[in-house]
Amino acid sequence: MTDAVENQEKQEKRVSKKHLPRTPMREQEAMERVQNYEEVPFGYSEAEAIAEAERCIICKNPKCVTACPVNIDIPSFIREVRDGNFEAAARILKDTNSLPAVCGRVCPQEDQCEKVCIEGIKHDPVAVGNLERFVADWEREHDKISIPEIPPPTGYKIAIVGSGPAGLTVAGDMAKQGHDVTVFEALHRPAGVLIYGIPEFRLPKLIVNAEVDYIRKLGAKFVMNTVVGVSITLDELFAEGYHAVFIGTGAGLPKFMNIPGENLVGVYSANEYLTRANLMGAMRFPEYDTPMRPSQHTVVVGGGNTAMDSARTALRLQKCRVSLVYRRSLQELPARVEEVHHAEAEGIEMHLLNNPVAILGNEQQEVTGIRCLRMELGEPDASGRRRPVEIKGSEFELECDTVIMAIGNDPNPVFTRATPGLKVSKWGTIIADEETGATSRPGVYAGGDIVSGAATVINAMGAGRKAANAMDTYVRSLAI
Amino acid sequence: MPQHVIHSRRILAEKVHEFWVEAPLIARKRKAGQFVIVRMNDRGERIPLTIASGDAERGLIRLIVQEAGKSTIEMGRLQVGDFFLDIAGPLGRPTHIETWGNLIAVAGGVGAAPLLPIVEAARAAGNRVHAIIGARSENLMILAEEYARHCHEVRLCSDDGSVGIKGLVTDCLRQWVSEGVQFNQSLIIGPVIMMRETAKVAKELGIPGQVSLNPIMIDGTGMCGACRVSVNGKTKFACVDGPEFDAWGVNFDELILRNRAYLRQEKIALDTMMDHECKIGLATGVAQ
Q1: Residue B106 is part of a domain; what is its CATH number?
Q2: What is the pLDDT of residues A407-430, one digit of tens each?
Q3: How many CB atoms lie within 10 A of CB B231?
Q4: Would residue B253 be called left, alpha or beta, if left means φ above 0 and alpha means ψ between -120 and 50 degrees?
Q5: Residue B257 and residue A364: Cβ atoms within 8 Å?
Q6: Which of B91, B219, B270 is most worth mutating to test chain A (most A CB atoms within 10 A of its CB)?
Q7: Model ipTM?
Q8: Domain range for B172
Q9: Any idea which architecture A256-407 has in CATH?
Q10: Which of A263, A271, A413 sits opposite B258 (nearest CB)?
């Protein structure tokens, strides 16, 4: 105990000596970037990365590691960056995280590793996310991606259902153990939300493809267009000789508000909007076949990262006025601060403390506007956030031709409905052990949004990591 | 390695193409009423197509495509040995089949394709199946002979009288009922307007039933919600809750307007393709 205190004091001294400001990341100017789909932040140069790494005091008992859902050895990789050993840094990252280029971009570090950073108590926390991104990009751009030595084949067959962040993590971890891994994906391209949901300007598809390629090189096979549950059932997977199955089918059933006008032409779920733009290439229509309706004013309902992604996609795709309607205030916006800043800088109008009550349409059933009520904040609710309360008689209308509902997703029912005998909660999520991902059926594990309900990429990866460990122990207990 | 090679193809009617395509998993699994999502090439749309039938032993499924826009026109040009890049399925809930007794199946145009496997399944479940096959004219009528094989009685009708009774399927249905035949259940598939009108008449005649809806879809697994339809005042996703719904409860007018959402863009896509092909044609002409 005293040691820890002493240790901390020593570290504090070092901090005050160094006292360097956080190295900012350069990015595309707002007015320029809305004209293209390219990534907004440029990433660190080698010099910037080293400068930022030098700010880390390499704690003996690093809190950042425990705050990371996949427990990356953060001080060790940062030490290598500080010393200019970028390749060694990449090896350390890849030890615990098969998708560092993705995590460096989309993890909410401010709520995880960076939140508990000692340096952050008095100054700014070390930019762990930026450094992670730098190392992963450096490795890829310098062709230094190396495949770790894989142990000889164990003979155990693992099936993974869904190729999103949870499934990819399990695939990587299991392949590294020498198991025979097959990933089944319902869509025509792998990576789930990383490919259909998160837009190019936040997560370039080149990077997603490179991460999937890495998992492939570890030995995992990918089978597309296969809807497990209907194309092939869980029982059939076991009959085909799979020893364990991981279910990571995600939260893919968009919610609507159940207000009048939601089925008008011009109302999209965020999933549909983003899928058209990202997966189907609507931004390059008519070169690609999937279209999007043109818009003069698009209103996005919601306040999470998906709402920000939808609004910023609309801005680029439609070159139109884009507004965001959210029923609480700026403080309660669930989106990452960084994304809110990006959205505001790009000119997205924020209509906070507004709640939609109806979507309005014309004779052709096309959207012409959205009717909202103004809200004020009352007492905190179950989530600890102050509950928005309607202001009586405050109705007003916003003219628009497109409405995107970005208010969350329910668990996708296709697999669970087709798979009797798997325990499911009243919300439709699969019931699984928090530490191991074990479901009610032996040999069947689950993780990610299908268990937790809609959450983050890194939480899904964390669940995948735990399940992979448990699955490894499980299959090794079986006789082949 | 293309997985979905076309084994055989033929033209069933003007602009209506039949393909037998390799898809072993789906051929084994598909049940009456289910559909697949098809993508032709890496720039293609994801299009839902009902599975008209399948051959589990040979690993083939039968798809029937009517030319309507760019993608389906392109599909119509595919030859034996060509392939579809992606086929996912079988999707949607299978048809709910009971032993109803006297059943009336009503097909409009290319709707005869998705209705056929349902008729087969209903027959196998011990129903007495009657069918009305309607088309604008004889050259657009498909599968009438196959219906004749699977049904107790089939009546044909056409708008111009070139085949069967001159009139609409609704006229045909009224006529049949007026002859004293009692139908306990109806299965109605065809263009949305035809389904709306037939459902209306069926309701009038007190015949409950099912329709199979064809809204715009992207993933087909519940993820995008593009296929929202209103049934008995509630929003349903056709891909995971359907595609079949209570004929009396569907808001067909909403579906008609939703299906028109991209008419302008579809025209742009088609014009761009035609324009492009025109230029290629001219260039070749010059070279020759």
Answers
A1: 3.40.50.80
A2: 999 998 889 988 988 999 999 999
A3: 19
A4: alpha
A5: yes
A6: B219
A7: 0.92
A8: 102-259
A9: 3-Layer(bba) Sandwich (3.50)
A10: A263
